[in-house]
């Protein structure tokens, strides 16, 4: 800094040393070098002050060629001094090292140097720049912006250009460190030095040879226009040429536009006037676009500034795109887009079909940018080191001496000259104590230069924005400043001369303010400044600094006194505007909970243990690697459809081999093992539908300790068969290999247990739970099975969830808690599953219904997108998932095998249990009775504490209890509205999207659930309360108390819901008890302390108390969203599954945020949270409705399930003739979107029609409805006719063996049916005929008929013998020679891909389609 030892001694010595070294190394035969160290003093006017300097040092070096006789020198300049508190590596130490070019400066540090001034009026200089600068970087625009004064910087070029022409170059990169302590060498890359060095060296050499230097005046030809293109090419031309180009290009544009208009008229066959009229209209629209393109960014800037959000882009320059570029593009595009959408003339040009999408995209980006800038840390301008806030302040001591020399005022404090628009606001709430900070406007009205030591012209210019922070203790300056009056001489009757001497630091200022009847007639400073004094209210300002010469400043002032009063016009300053209290980002409060969700809950949800390897076998634990190898073999068998070779032979052999090997490895001295391969046949009924199975195989293994005498067995079950066209690695090969490994570990470990364990590997679950039905009703060990652990899957990979227990045996859940290692369970899952909204079923129902066996039902559900598809392969299953399930099942089976309750389970039948886990860390369970006590007790406690809280409010606020109660009732009504809206808004979104054909938009992008359902729910929760707190004017009860009343109202709502659901018999009411318990605990603690009555002090404990309820509620409902989202892709098209997800998301939001959302009203601008949520919702709606993000399907991972049958229908009449033979494809669409995603693809669906008319005219629609699901959705099924007949791979034969009249009113038909392993019979007697008996059940009883025909689903496994059956029909009149009933036979050739045309049709589906299709034959007979 000027005057410092570092500048005047050390820097000078360094430069002299370097220059002398250069002189010593110079080519003395070619050059003469002279080095001159000079001291200069002087003064000049700058802005509204005089710069006075004394003893300032310059180091000048002249290098001249030996043969040069020129008297014209090229000046190359830069400075080595610095601003306070900066090492100035960039400004301009960088340039000193380079030491070349006309004038070199910096407003940054590093990067390329910019040519930002030239001339003036010497365009030849730019020509030399073009020739010799190696890496050009310059623009006329920078020159004109700089010279406009918009940039808060200046350079020495300002002084030089008054005398000599030149070029001004400066660095501009990384201006954040300019004039700061971070302007260090570390931020300057060497490449920047190389860039500038190359340019300056070449340029100096070029200019040193310039002939124009001989007589610069002769080459004075006006300004230049110049610019570079990406630093690759430099363009320049004279100002006169620029004028010609500007007019010429504009003229050419007008001419070409006219030609274009003429061409349009000719091609469109309209008059030129017609096109011109439209052109004028478009010109007006485009002018509006142009103005809006400029105006909208300005509006954004103005609004952000008015709400205290200036400089949001300061540390995040990408925000400039969203805040200013996109609004500008919106302004440019919106008017013309609207015009082309509404104008009725045929557009001459129409490039894109939906230009509005561009506008909406820009709006979305702008909304996101505004949210980030206004509500997140991204928009906070400052960062340590790189983008700091410059805070300039002086440690001030003001001493006012009066005319008599007396000290009238001595004050100390800090004078802040804030460097940017945000001023002190970022420091409010920090550790900086700014209490008492005030504006100095009033001081500026009363005192010369505000009575402050304004440092330089910037302090002077910004004085009205400067602020003063008083300090009680006086500032002690490190040195003294002395002003001595050397003399006072009266020159004449009106003039007096004062002579002064000033001693002090290197930087000092003098302010002169004559009184109104006095003028300064002469002084020792610049006379021109005296004659043109600064505008009022500025005083004369002399800024003095010295360098190496520290001698005192001696000066004189001559004062003239006038007897005429001088009336000066005064501008009355308005009173300071009321200070806007800074606000905290309320959105940051919500961001904490969002981070808690993603950083804590999500990792715990997907957490899995480390998979063990074969090397760990000696530990006698579950080995995931061995189970994984078994799963690899089992899944590679392929589709294990009941009746197929893969299921009946290969899978059975694999399991038998594994079980046999386990038996060989078993500890025979401890255990006995029996292996039974059984074949079962039977029938089970569902109303008028019956399932008949034949030759279904079960592999049953009983492991008995030799010491056991128990006749109570534990049953462990899973199935190895699969749905069509899936290798079923997850469902349920995963559980089969888990059972095998559990059996292996138990049989080879010296750990005895009390009760035998039966492992049931059943061979047919996917049809109608047939194998488990056959086992529990027929197997020899079934009567001894007292409890069951059922294992299944509705997904692939991840943790298994306990979703059914008992029933009425809570001790089973106690064992689950005691033995399970990684708990994952909830009563709510049990009640949802048993409600029937889950499109699945498990063998657990068979054991419970036909065996009256209690148990635990567990299943995988994560990644249900691949469930029952060809992508259910081993690759999607992590080994850690096997380890998780294996550890759990092994421990649980061992525990239950020692359960004393198995001896007499009926004795422990004591009602259902309430159970749930917390993040897989802890498992909670209690009996249903205990749950009822809790569900009534906790709401009761809540109500008591709320009454106590309200009583406290009345005491503190000194109002009546009735007054508080009235306000509480009002708040309760508003909170109820909030609660309802929190549920309703997501439902409305789901309903609207469904009506627009946009169901399942979140199917592949689950994050959309947050924007589509969670945010609308939070808007509904927050909006009524936010409006209420903005409008309510009750000043008798504090706002903090009002906020507590809102939370009390939320607690009352949850308490009433808890009581109501408990009375309704739902154990899931516990989900409301969890947040209530923690709320009442925080309320109780607040009431026990003074926090309840200390403003918002109670919110801290409230927030802390809600962490666990938030984590649990979000964990619980996230579980259901993960489970139900893929189910929406296979639940059929009849119901809107979006409503399920919307309700779950809404319920989860209400329980997670119910006690948190009202707290946003403790912040100053809660509306920002609402607007932020609205912005997120708007973006999500746009993404879901208008981009590919909202398209539900993705190949392999999230495919569209499309089930259809290649159908051939053959209708035989009573006389045996074939009356109808049609072929086509019967579609049973699995989700809400049905065929819509396929329209426009390669799939030819021309002729696709509804089945409604067929269902009205024909029994079972006249179609081979494959399953109960097909029958349920038959009215949503669709038919695509095909001209060529379907070629079935085999035939199906129905043979009538006999027709026997049993009695006068009864006739008996006997049949024989031969066909594939999956067949169906549909039976519909005519109106006067009754089906009285049949062979499908042992007693022959036929259920009473309903409107729906009888349906018999027949499946065979290893036994493919024909189905023989009889039907007895009763007719009152005994006339059996007329049609009595219709019999439909459906045959499904599932393992066959169909004929060539069917194969071609299947290949036309898009890659995201998951097809389940096969040939089917339907034969309708009349008997």
Report on the structure:
This protein has 1423 residues and is of the alpha+beta class. It has 34 helices and 38 strands. The protein has a 15-stranded mixed sheet that branches. The chain has a four-stranded mixed sheet with strand order 1-2-16-14. Strand 31 and strand 32 form a beta hairpin. Helix 2 packs across helix 6, helix 25 (1008-1031) packs across helix 30 (1138-1153) and helix 27 packs antiparallel against helix 29. The protein is elongated. The protein starts with a helix and ends with a strand. The relative contact order is 0.06. Residues 92-101, 344-350 and 563-583 have low confidence and may be disordered.
For the largest beta-sheet, the strand count, sense and barrel status come to:
15 strands, mixed
* Overall shape: elongated
Question: Cα-atom Rg, whole angstroms?
Answer: 45 Å
Number of helices: 34
Q: Uncertain runs with pLDDT below 50, 5 residues or more?
A: 92-101, 344-350, 563-583
Q: First CA to last CA: what distance?
A: 114 Å
State which percent range the strand residues make up.
Answer: 15-25%
- On the 0 to 100 scale, the average pLDDT is 88
**What structural class results from the helix and strand content?**
alpha+beta
Q: Helical residue percent?
A: 25-40%
